[in-house]
Amino acid sequence: MTPPSSTGTTDAYPAPRLGQLTYYAILMITFLAASSAPTPLYRLYQTTWHFSATMLTLVFASYVFALLVALLVSGSLSDHIGRRPVVAGAIVGEILSLGVFFWADSLAWLMLARILQGIATGVVTSALAAAMLDSDHQRGPVMASIAPLFGMGIGALIAGILVTYAPAPLHLVYAFLAVALMVQGLLLGRIRESVTPRPGAWASLRPRAYIPPPVRGPLMRVVSAVISSWALGGFSLSLGPTLVETVSGIHNPLIGCLITFLLPCVGAISVLTLRAKPPRVAVLIGTGCLIVGMSVLLLGVYWRSVAVLLSGTAFAGIGFGAAFMGAMRTVMPLAPPTERSALMAAFYVICYLSASLLAMVGGVATQHMGLLPTTYVYGGVVAALSLAAFIGALTQRTTPRRCQACDSPA
Question: pLDDT tens digit string along 284-323?
Fold first, then answer.
């Protein structure tokens, strides 16, 4: 789930560079694994530092807001100064954030670490996506879509295992990730630069988000699918582990992180499996699976069955990946290349605000309603938004006309 960059500044390779593509994909997985690594630790942080669910979701939202701002500001920077300098700077920033996580002893330090991590992840997102496109123009876009999802799922799972079975539960996972990034940073020196530097770096830092008029109608038909899928993702990354532990009665970080692992990983598999489907079909499959998945998940909460809850999460994960992919492929081809990066920025504003703001609302609601009633309402909203998108896609009679200048990949 990374925005593509413009392709006009890259040097054409005579053949795909699979080693380079693999390196950038693994680095993307590492960054997104680091982003989800704190999630299984949230319960320990709450117990140790005694803060509320509202503050927990605020910590998550601070990461998302920082990522969004960094993405909007630096999205095209690597087109001007090169992929490697941007990636190198982001690696340094990510290692710094992991150091703050390692030494954090209060909620304020935890929030600072999340903000630094959001900035580093936002800066590197578009650069790595563009670098994968440079390395292989056919497999690169697929890897750029799948790697972040796998990274989020794997990061939560590894963190849950280390927190549960290894010593120093609040420190070891951050040390492990920092060492991995240091090694990858050293390997970056062996990677060929794919961009010829050009003027305009400072001007490129001006945030630009714009929805072209031909895109607005189709976007309105699929925006509820985007909001519902990302709202579910935000909930799973912030309150998901607490929900699983509450339903199961087992206070185990590994058990709690299963919801955070399943949703993005199954989403990645669905993107890989359904990537050849027409956008409308992907939206129908995705929103249908979100409706069914949320219904099963809520039944698992009602029956206090972790197996049913996780089954619903896995089914919703299919919808998460398919609905997002279908929505993106519905709108991106309708914009000319000169406006596509600005449209992508606007698209991601919708995505990240859906994940952060609705998760914050859920966190505040838990303080007044309790976790389980909040989950029922939140899940009902996700299902209702998915149903609206499903009906919109089902009743769509005509296919929007593709713009004449849309030959570059979205």
Answer: 999 999 999 999 999 999 999 999 999 999 999 999 999 9
Q: Which of 210, 227, 158 is nearest to 340 (CA)?
A: 210
Beta carbons within 10 angstroms of residue 85's beta carbon = 18
What are the residues whose beta carbons fall under 8 Å from the beta carbon of 384, sequence distance 6 or more? none
> In the block, which residue shows the tokens 């390997």?
187
- Identify whether the C-beta of residue 153 lies closer than 8 Å to the C-beta of residue 268: yes
Which residues are registered as beta bridge partners of 195? 10
Distance, in Å, from the CA atom of 99 to the CA atom of 8, rounded to the nearest integer, reads 37
Length of the chain in residues, anyone? 410
CA 14, 19, 20, 21 dihedral sign is positive
Please report how many Cα atoms fall inside a 13 Å half-sphere around the Cα of residue 158, on the Cβ side: 20
pLDDT in tens, 43-88: 889 888 988 888 989 999 999 999 999 988 988 888 889 889 999 9
Are residues 278 and 256 in contact, defined by beta-carbon separation less than 8 angstroms?
no
How far apart, in Å, do the first and last CA atoms of the chain sit? 12
Q: What are phi and psi of 287, to 5 degrees?
A: -70, -35
Taking only the tens place, the pLDDT of each residue in 133-173 is 888 877 887 888 899 999 999 999 999 999 999 999 999 99
Residues 251 and 153: beta-carbon distance below 8 Å: no
Query: Which residue in 178, 226, 182, 175 sits closest to 354, CA to CA?
Result: 226
SS3 345: helix
Handedness of CA 238, 244, 250, 255 (dihedral sign): negative
Rounded to a whole number of angstroms, the CA Rg of the chain reads 20
Query: From CA 93, how far away is CA 17, in angstroms rounded?
Result: 27
